[in-house]
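Lab notebook, design round three. We kept the backbone fixed and only want residue identities now. Task for the bench partner: fill in a sequence for the structure below.
Input structure tokens:
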């Protein structure tokens, strides 16, 4: 059987909901790795970027929602193994490994890192002493 995704059957790919690696969620709400290893409110885009960093093919399914919490919209499909069963990234043999690696990478995502160091992107704020900054009295 052929399907429309250019010969790729993403139905067989594993599904990664952001909830799985969200440190703000409880196990009952769907978290699947321990809170200390999870990351805060990951997005599908961040997860997708982490997958491409790990050289894993992925597909964002923005129209899908997490069944336990339908406000959590979006999920990521990831391919771990080729058709012949060989791993695309030998360091990531299981979905559990994938969740742990992605959760580790998300906090270092470029979209996040610039929040901590405002000097690199936006110069608004009193980060530059010595220039201007003096009030006239």
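Proposed sequence:
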């Amino acid at each position: 059987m052929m399907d429309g995704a250019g010969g790729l059957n993403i139905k067989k790919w594993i599904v990664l909901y952001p909830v799985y690696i969200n440190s703000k969620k409880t196990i009952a709400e769907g978290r699947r790795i321990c809170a200390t290893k999870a990351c805060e409110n990951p997005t599908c885009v961040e997860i997708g970027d982490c997958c491409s960093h790990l050289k894993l093919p992925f597909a964002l399914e923005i129209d899908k929602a997490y069944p336990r919490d339908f406000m959590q919209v979006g999920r990521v499909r990831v391919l771990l193994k080729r058709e012949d069963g060989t791993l695309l990234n030998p360091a990531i043999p299981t979905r559990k490994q994938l969740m742990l690696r992605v959760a580790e990478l998300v906090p270092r995502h470029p979209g996040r890192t610039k929040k901590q160091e405002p000097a690199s992107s936006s110069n608004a704020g009193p980060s530059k002493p010595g220039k201007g900054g003096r009030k006239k009295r």
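Keep this in mind before ordering anything: The mean pLDDT is 83.
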